[in-house]
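I'll show an entry:

:::
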Amino acid sequence: MLSESKERPALSPLTISLPVEILQEIFCRCLPPQPQLQAKPRTLSSAFGQQQTPETAPLLLCHVSRLWREIAVSCPFLWRRLDVLISNGIARPPVALISLWLSRSGGLPLYLSLYQQNDSEESCVATGEVLDVFKQFTNRWYHVQFDLKGPKYCRLFTSDERSAPMLRTFCISTCSPAYDESNVLCDILEFVPSLVDLHVSRIPGLTVLGDTSYSVPWWQLESLSLEYVPSIGTSLLLLDKCPKLVNVMFKIDTPLGPLSFQPCRSNLQSLTINIGHSELEAFLDHAQLPLLETLVVYIRGSLDRYHWPQVIFQHFLHRSGCWLRHFEIHNSGMESHDFNACLQNVYMQKLVELVVDERQHWTWDPFLTDVALDLLTCTPSNHRYFGPTAVASRSEEGSNQGTEMAVIGPRNILPCLKSIAFRGGCLSAADGALASMVESRWRYWKYNGVEKLCRVELELRSSHTEDSKRLLKFREEGLELEARVW
């Protein structure tokens, strides 16, 4: 819209004659799309440096003509969102512009993001200056996302600044416990009647009993993300404290902590946990999540061999009665019989997305074998059992003998599957078997009575030439394919 020459382009007579209200509506539609705030604030970095520049709205609109500038400046909606990047000790946009920018937003709720690249002294000073400006508008904070590197921000909130009646989403990521800016910034939680999404590295002073000196409104939260939870018992106590929770992401420390004899029942729909391999059993043993649809598990373990607790996992699904739509495992410790049992479990048969990411030591045995691919390959008439189900006794752990089998009838397993991702070293099968499985769900999905597979993400060995050739052909036909060869 801007000319490289000194002369500005002539405005269209139609544009000049439009009512101010129409121009303001047009201007608002020129804004870049509002990004979805994430539970992991560190993903912010890639989005910064490309948002508010002189070449994008609203700043661009102020450079076209005096009329456009007046209209843009008088439209608060254009100024309610601000992303700030701290790089090499310099705030972009600068602090003076930040203050002016927010003053133009009228009384509208504010979308604020702040990303600090490093913990240099200059960057910390600049970050503090930006936070000082942001604090002047706490009564209009709505979506706030800070990714801070420290050191500790220690400018206390005044009594007026501790009230954020509009605040709905509050995200703070800090680089380490030593730089715990949240000690001060969590003061804002004193009065947040609208808060439903809380995502922080840690709640300062959170005890194993789930207590803290801060006024966290657990009862009103719908989404909660904590990068540090002291124990398994603490995580379950927090679920009890938050009856409205729908989405949770916990990174849980190794102690078991206080565990109740009765399973913790919660109406969670999405659960992401980062947990030690020996603690996963305790969590699954003490949780009952009947509405759970998304389960993502990151396992932390030593280089020594550890095992996926398949029988306990089956008991968890059976106790909860939940039908998973998204199942994602990272460094699970599964063996082939565990994975095959997962695929055939009754409560997995509404699965839409399956993600397997295995990055353990190369000596670990892959578990995505020819048997698993054969199970996943669809045929027009596939009479298969769906078991074993989750009714195996504890004495039979590690074995499928004696478990009940659920006969579903002549149908393929995972009939709703639309997306698969197999990453790392999980695959060990004959060349061509993987492509045949994909083909049965891509080309012949309707004939085989299943949902159409739409997306495939794979990491393949270079020896899988037939798989690679056929998958590329499917991509030409429209399959969304992301394949890496190693």
Observations:
- The chain has a mean pLDDT of 83.
